[in-house]
Every structure is written in structure tokens, then in C-alpha cells.
Automatic annotation (TrEMBL):
The keyword Zinc does not apply. The keyword Membrane applies. Belongs to the sel-1 family. The chain crosses the membrane at residues 524-544. This is SEL1L2 adaptor subunit of ERAD E3 ligase. It comes from the Eukaryota. It holds the Pfam family Sel1. GO terms for cellular component: endoplasmic reticulum membrane. SUPFAM superfamilies: HCP-like (SSF81901). GO terms for molecular function: ligase activity. The lineage of its organism: Eukaryota, Metazoa, Chordata, Craniata, Vertebrata. It comes from Rousettus aegyptiacus (Egyptian fruit bat). Keywords: Ligase, Membrane, Transmembrane, Transmembrane helix.
Length: 549
């Protein structure tokens, strides 16, 4: 019926294969008609498809135009993609200030959501870590393990009760968000005396939800119970009540006292609140140096709003020397908490269910947005050559490109992979020198045992680098020391190296002996051997005479 929102949802379902109905051609038709109507979601999708050449012509210039229109129309994804492109210099001139501008817009949007407690942390499973047994991935709770935890919780294991309550409260490790289950487990643990559980019940009543309707008095009661036991989350909760005047009069001095107590116990949210008080001058004198100190402390535990305010300070040079690069890196971290990160879960489950194309499309979009885990996951799927949406001959070059982007972002495994691609000539021409260069980076910077082993082999055989047996031995030993998994391959490699080396020595010895004989033949004539025998006999007679003399 031409309803734009319905068309957008339909196009997304056809593109990402939601409900098992992937049809990229049909999705593109919908997106093209939507783009003409000015849909920023469609502009972003067409940019993404042009960028990879999926169902459309591979055209980076076109992709850039689509992304520019998308971001102008309000697409946060397009903003993020452009931010990443300008940060890394992908098909545009590297420009930190432009990247900062794009990332800031997205980070402002995310921070607003986080302040309303709407940020959802999402597990990012690395496909490269467990290709054989993905079901045992620690990022996602296996159904059998979940049932076992439930059994333990019912038996009265307080720690498990609190953990299950937390998982259900925010919907972690593949579990659905369920406030009723969260409250059920927290109440069980609180009854048994768990201060953490009391504090979490306080948090639920403070924020309000279906299971625990907003109630400041109940929140105060549970926070106080937890705080009396010296619990950091409870102390922080009381601080919040006094800071915002919820159920009690606003009292910055009390808030500061509780935040300081909780911060001393290492609770990152309290460290952030202290930073915010000094940053905004709420009940205290503005002090950017102190604000920076507390934001930095909280950011070390990954507190997202602390990272956001740190980025703000670096971007404007407030209380710290201005650094565009640092601000962009920090903003990027905040942007990656956006709701689009939920695709990590749907992509992972699609992969597990064998729906490779649906998984690849979702990971590829996240990769385009600058997520390192998605870049290595996309490359991993592409090199397995199981996907049908990209032509076979494009797979290795595209995988190499993605491994490269992941490596630049600090992925050691990806760095080794680039070395492999150049060594074997996958998606590029064989180049031992470049392979050795990448293995060296992985070995020196990330202490990768695999890279050390590969480099040792190259030194042993003089591939792309000058032959050096001693250095090869040293690198083999280092690989074995770095990873226990390398012990057996290293042992075999060293046996082979020493055997070959011994054989070479023996051959060399034989050759030198023959060479010496040839030289004697030239100086003493053809009967030099008779001369030597005569000399030995004379020496023996002389020795025997002396002995019996």
C-alpha cells in the first residue's frame, strides 16, 4: 500500500534474511523506490550493497554518495560508516576532524539513550575462536548450562541467583530481558542476605518496569539495606536518590558522600557520578582535572558515559590537552554500543543455524560500521567460501581487505592471516617479503606464537628474508614458550631442522675431505698416498725404538 515504514521493514527482512526469507534482488528494488522517496535507511542500505558489490555493481564512489545522503537524512549508521571511513582513510582522504564530527553526532544520540538506561550491552562472539564448537562459546549461555544454573539457583546458590537476576535484568548472554525473572531471583538472594541482590532490587524500583513499578520509597529501603552492609551499588543508589531528589530532598553534600564511599570501593558508576559532579559543578566547584580523573577511572571498567565525557573533554581540550585522535577513538567506542549491535546476536544465531548468507550480510554491515569483531567474522565466513551472495573469485580479495581492517584495529589473528594470504597468494600475488613483514608485526607487537612459528620457518628456508638458522631456532623456542599448543609442532620442526642441519654438516665434511685430497694430488703428485704411508711407518718405527730403547 506504499506505507514507507512497512516498506523499510520489509526491505530489511528481505536483505538480512529475517524469518528465513532472504531475497536480495527484491530488497534492492524496494530500497531503490524508497531512496527516491528520501528514505535514509534505504540510502544507507544501497551504500552498503554498493560497497561490497552484493546484488549491485561494486562501486565505492556510489557507496560514498549514498552514505552522504543517508547521514544528511539522519541515518546514524551512515554517520558511523562515514566516521570510520574518514578515520581510516577508506576511499576518502584521512581526516580526523571530519571523523570526529560524524562520530560525535552518533555518540550524542547513544549517550542520551544511556542516560535513560536504554543502552543494551551485546555479546560479540568471535567465530575465529571456536570454529569447531561454537555452541560452547562463553559469550552465549548454552541452554543446558542455563538449566543447570536454574537448578542451582532453586537449590539456594546465592551467587547464581544474583547472576541469573543480572542476566535477565538486561538480557545478557543470549537470554531474553525478563524483569519478572530478574526480580524473582533477586528477592530469593536478598532474603538469604545478599547485599548485591538488595541493591539490584533498589535499582529496579528506582528505574521502574513491569515487575517493579517506579517507587522511590521502596528503592530507598533496599538501597539502605545494601548500603548498611557496605555494598558499593547500594551506596551509589543512595547517592543517586539524593542527587536527583527522588523521594528525598535534593542534597548534593549527601550525594557526594555516598558517591565517594562507593567510588572508593571501585564501583565505576559512582566514579562516573563524581566525575559528572565536578564536570558540571553540581554542588561542588567545577574542577575539570578532578572530573577527568574520575571519568578516566570509570572508563577503565568500561563505563560508557564516562568514556563519552572523556571523549568530549579530549575533543574540546577541556581539562586536558586537545587530541582529535583520542576523542575519535573514545567516541567510536561509545557509538559501538548502539542498538544496531544487536545484529551480532542475530548474525551469530544465523551462522549457528547454517544460514551463512544471512549471517554474512549482518556481519558485513557491522564491519562497514567499523566493528573489528564483525570485520574478522565476515572475513572468516568469506574465506570458508560457503556464502552464495558473493562471487567465488571476489571472496579472497574481499576477505583480505577485511582481515586488513581488523588487523589495523589491533587483531593479532587477522595480522597473521594477512601474512598467510601473501604467503600462499590468496586474493593477491605470492609475496614472501610482505608475508614475513606481517608475521614480524604479529610476533613483535602481539607475541603471536603462530606468527613466531611461521617466521622461524621462513628464516630456516630463507623465504623472503635472508636465511638464518640460529634465528629460526630462537623463534621456534619462543613460539613454544609463548603457547603450550605450539610445543608439538615446534618439537617436530626442530627435529627436522637439526636433522637437515646434521646431514648438511656430514655432506659438507665429506666434500671438504674430498677437496683436500684433490689439493694434495695437485701438490705432491699422483703417489702422495704412498708418501704419507711411508711417513706414518717411519714415525711408528721411531716411537717403537724409543719405547724399547
Amino acid at each position: 500500500m506504499g506505507h514507507l515504514k512497512a516498506m523499510e521493514k520489509m526491505a530489511d527482512a528481505l536483505l538480512f534474511g529475517n524469518f528465513g526469507m532472504q531475497n536480495i534482488t527484491a530488497a534492492i528494488q524496494l530500497y531503490e523506490s524508497l531512496a527516491q522517496e528520501g528514505s535514509y535507511k534505504a540510502q544507507n542500505a544501497l551504500g552498503f550493497l554498493s560497497s561490497y558489490g552484493i546484488g549491485m555493481e561494486y562501486n565505492q564512489a556510489k557507496a560514498l554518495i549514498y552514505y552522504t545522503f543517508g547521514s544528511a537524512g539522519g541515518s546514524m549508521m551512515s554517520q558511523m560508516i562515514l566516521g570510520y571511513r574518514y578515520l581510516s582513510g577508506i576511499n576518502v582522504l584521512q581526516n580526523c576532524e571530519v571523523a570526529l564530527n560524524h562520530y560525535k553526532k552518533v555518540a550524542d544520540y547513544i549517550a542520551d539513550k544511556l542516560e535513560k538506561s536504554e543502552g543494551i550491552p551485546v555479546e560479540k562472539v568471535r567465530l575465529t575462536e571456536r570454529p569447531e564448537n561454537l555452541s560452547s562459546n562463553s559469550e552465549i549461555l548454552d541452554w543446558d548450562i542455563y538449566q543447570y544454573y536454574k537448578f542451582l539457583a532453586e537449590r539456594g546458590d546465592i551467587q547464581i541467583q544474583v547472576s541469573l537476576g543480572q542476566l535477565h535484568l538486561i538480557g545478557r548472554k543470549g537470554l531474553d530481558q525478563d524483569y519478572y525473572k530478574a526480580l524473582y531471583y533477586f528477592l530469593k538472594a536478598a532474603k538469604a542476605g545478599s547485599a548485591n541482590a538488595m541493591a539490584f532490587i533498589g535499582k529496579m524500583y528506582l528505574e521502574g518496569n513491569d515487575a517493579a513499578p517506579q517507587n522511590n520509597a521502596t528503592a530507598f529501603k533496599y538501597f539502605s539495606m545494601a548500603a548498611n552492609k557496605g555494598n558499593a551499588i547500594g551506596l551509589h543508589g543512595l547517592g543517586l536518590l539524593y542527587f536527583y531528589g527522588k523521594g528525598v530532598p535534593v542534597n548534593y553534600a549527601e550525594a557526594l558522600k555516598y558517591f565517594q564511599k562507593a567510588a572508593e570501593k571501585g564501583w565505576p558508576n559512582a566514579q562516573f557520578q563524581l566525575g559528572f559532579m565536578y564536570y558540571s559543578g553540581s554542588g561542588v566547584w567545577k574542577d575539570y582535572k578532578l572530573a577527568f580523573k574520575y571519568f578516566y577511572l570509570a572508563s577503565q571498567s568500561g563505563q560508557p558515559l564516562a568514556i563519552y565525557y572523556l571523549a568530549k573533554m579530549y575533543a574540546t581540550g577541556t581539562g586536558v590537552l586537545r587530541s582529535c585522535r583520542t576523542a575519535v577513538e573514545l567516541y567510536k567506542g561509545v557509538c559501538e554500543l548502539g542498538h544496531w549491535a544487536e545484529k551480532f546476536l542475530t548474525a551469530y544465531f544465523a551462522y549457528k543455524d547454517g544460514d551463512i548468507d544471512s549471517s554474512l550480510i549482518q556481519y558485513a554491515l557491522l564491519a562497514e560500521m567499523g566493528y573489528e569483531v564483525a570485520q574478522s567474522n565476515s572475513a572468516f565466513i568469506l574465506e570458508s567460501k560457503k556464502a552464495k551472495i558473493i562471487e567465488k573469485e571476489k571472496m579472497y580479495p574481499m576477505a583480505l581487505l577485511l582481515w586488513n581492517r581488523a588487523a589495523i584495529q589491533g587483531n593479532a589473528f587477522a595480522r597473521v592471516k594477512i601474512g598467510d594470504y601473501h604467503y600462499y597468494g590468496f586474493g593477491t600475488k605470492k609475496d614472501y617479503e610482505t608475508a614475513a613483514k606481517h608475521y614480524s608485526i604479529a610476533a613483535d607487537k602481539y607475541h603471536s606464537a603462530q606468527a613466531m612459528f611461521n617466521l622461524a620457518y621462513m628464516y630456516e628456508h630463507g623465504l623472503g628474508i635472508s636465511k638464518d638458522i640460529h634465528l629460526a631456532r630462537r623463534l621456534y623456542d619462543m613460539a613454544a614458550q609463548t603457547s603450550p599448543d605450539a610445543n608439538m609442532p615446534v618439537l617436530l620442526a626442530l627435529i627436522k631442522l637439526e636433522t637437515v642441519h646434521l646431514l648438511q654438516d656430514v655432506l659438507f665434511f665429506n666434500f671438504t675431505m674430498i677437496w683436500k685430497w684433490i689439493k694434495l694430488d695437485n701438490t705432491l703428485g699422483p703417489y702422495w698416498d704412498l708418501f704419507v704411508i711411508g711417513l706414518i711407518v717411519a714415525v711408528l718405527i721411531f716411537l717403537l725404538r724409543n719405547r724399547f730403547g
